[in-house]
Amino acid sequence: MTNPLVVANEVTFPDPNLLITEDDTPVDNFASAKQQRLLVSSLYSSSWRTEPFLAEANVGIYHAVSQPAVVPDLFISLDVQVSTDWWEKPNRCYLMWNFGKPPELVLEIVSNRVGNELAAKLQIYAQMRVGYYIVYDPAKQLGERSLRLYELRGLHYTERSDPWLEQVNLGLTLWQGEFEGRQETWLRWCDANGTMLLTGDEKADQERQRADQERQRADQEHQRAERLAAILKAQGIDPDQMPL
After folding, report:
1. CA angle centred on 106, ends 102 and 109, rounded to 5°
2. DSSP collapsed to 3 states, 192-207
3. Helix or strand or coil: residue 74?
4. What is residue 98's predicted lDDT score, i.e. its pLDDT?
């Protein structure tokens, strides 16, 4: 029988070839899938950060020997990069002993009352030393609040009301609007001024709107110039012969 553990630098790690890096379990609902795409895509399309980072949804995190992976709805890890050879078994998911650190932020989206977001998962992420743990409960399955934010203080999480997460230079806000054809209340990232981080499509829409506004201004200026020329001609003045 193959030994599931290998020894490196006197520290025992699981053999990555024996880890379950994907089990083909689908995401549990359409709403969570869209919310995850919104949060991840806006991070990569914005100028939030110039240094390397990793933001992923439904990717397993192996954090301890002989422990199964945890699969948060979303995590952010700063100053790390995925290997260029990401099809190799050790590079397919987040092995903390390879990346050398836990993620700075983990987010769970509540879809039912059996997810243990405020119990077992909270304890696991605290043990992993994840700096921020976010629980988004859009259907208010766990109580009257849709958003709970926890910051690691010492060995335990402390709940906080301030949506600004200084260690990752990100804030959180609830936004009523349309994403991928769905009008809904969405959880969004924002900067220190409260300005939302935009998706690539939103940025493209803004550029198109600016271009349309510029064309409208140019058309208005052209029409104004034509009206002025008509007035001058009616007075017997050739506008083309006027000194500049």
Report:
1. 155
2. CCCCECCCHHHHHHHH
3. strand
4. 92
**Residue 110: closest CA among 141, 77, 66:** 141
What CATH number was assigned to the domain covering residues 5-197? 3.90.1570
Q: Are strands 61-62 and 94-95 parallel, antiparallel or unpaired?
A: parallel
DSSP 239: G
Classify residue 157 as exposed, middle or buried by CB count within 10 Å of its CB (0-12, 13-18, 19+): buried
Query: Do residues 126 and 95 touch, judged by C-beta distance below 8 A?
Result: no
The CA-CA-CA angle for residues 174, 118, 77, to 5°, reads 65
* Residue 80 DSSP class: -
Prediction pTM value? 0.79
Token code pair at residue 109: 């989206």
What are the two backbone dihedrals, phi and then psi, of residue 229, each rounded to the nearest 5 degrees?
A: -65, -40
User: Would you give the DSSP letter of residue 100?
Assistant: T
Name the token pair of 165.
Answer: 């997460």
Tokens 């001024």 found at = 193
- 244 or 109: which leads in pLDDT: 109
Residue 35 has pLDDT above 70, yes or no: yes
For the chain, give every domain's residue range: 5-197, 206-241
d(CA 166, CA 11): 33
